[in-house]
Amino acid sequence: MINLKNVYKTYPNGVVALNGIDIHIEPGEFVYVVGPSGAGKSTFIKLIYREEVPTKGDVIIDGIETNKLKANKVPYLRRDIGVVFQDFKLLPRLTVYENVAFALEVIEETPEVIQERVKEVLELVGLEDKAKSFPQELSGGEQQRVSIARAIASKPKIVIADEPTGNLDPDTSWGIMRTLEEINARGTTIIMATHSQEIVNTIKKRVIAIEDGLIARDEKQGDYGYEI
Fold first, then answer.
1. Can you state the angle between helices 96-105 and 111-124, rounded to 10 degrees?
2. Of the candidates 75, 124, 129, the residue with the CA atom closest to the CA atom of residue 97
3. Beta strand pairing status for 189-193 and 158-162?
4. What gap in Å lies between CA 225 and CA 228, rounded to an integer?
5. How far apart are alpha carbons 214 and 201 in whole angstroms?
6. Please, where are the H alpha helices in the chain?
7. Which pLDDT tens digit goes with each residue over 190-218?
8. DSSP letter at 137?
9. What share of the chain has pLDDT > 70, as a percent?
10. Are 223 and 192 in contact (CB under 8 A)?
């Protein structure tokens, strides 16, 4: 599903973000990506959805070598990858329904499919009664659940969650985690970058720890491993 082979990433300013990493992630896995700030986690995440390309090495997503992908083919790759951001990135002038529908409109789904799928994912994240609300009328947790609904609307094979609980209170964070676990249980691969020691240590999943651009640990049922 996801393979990084001897991947290096050096930015134009000389910063070395990744220094030769090898990772294989199977379909349907739930993986935490942890490590100190500046360790290379964000670069690792961005390589998967082809926001960045490696300086050296290969990034292969579902059989596609993304570093060799032409720019006009990247949107097709991203149809199979949903991204959940820490700051939600919702469109403020669109309703909840319209925010989620937009993700399907850009891949030219039919109105019938859009209506059915938006209803389905809003029910999944528990926001069917908020379809006509605007983002500013929602709590932070509700906005994050809209972000998740949008990310899974196209039925992607992979969902990348970049600090999805970072701006949320503890109770809301657990609700977001239950939603992600349910999505994972339906077969979607989840890759979640996080600084939450409590979540990682409580909801046991595979843990990949990145330090100084290298894989420091890769454990099937790992702990967070850092003092907060």
1. 130
2. 129
3. parallel
4. 10
5. 22
6. 41-48, 74-78, 96-105, 111-124, 140-152, 170-185, 197-202
7. 999 999 999 999 999 999 999 999 999 99
8. G
9. 100
10. no
- Give the tens place of pLDDT for each residue, 2-32: 999 999 999 999 999 999 999 999 999 999 9
91, β-bridge pairs:
none
The closest of 180, 93, 94 to 141, measured between CA atoms, is 180
Work out the mean pLDDT of the chain and round it to a whole number.
Answer: 95
Q: Which two tokens stand for residue 45?
A: 């995440």
Q: Which two tokens stand for residue 93?
A: 């002038």
Q: Which residue has the tokens 């964070």?
A: 173
The structure's pTM equals 0.93
Of 127, 123, 101, 103, residue with least CA distance to 114:
101
- Joined together, the tokens standing for residue 133 give 């609300």
Q: Which of 205, 202, 227, 228 is nearest to 218 (CA)?
A: 205
Q: State both tokens at 199.
A: 């979540």
- How many C-beta atoms surround the C-beta of residue 113 within 10 A? 10
Q: Are 153 and 117 in contact (CB under 8 A)?
A: yes
Can you tell me the distance from the alpha carbon of 203 to that of 73, in angstroms, rounded to the nearest whole number?
36
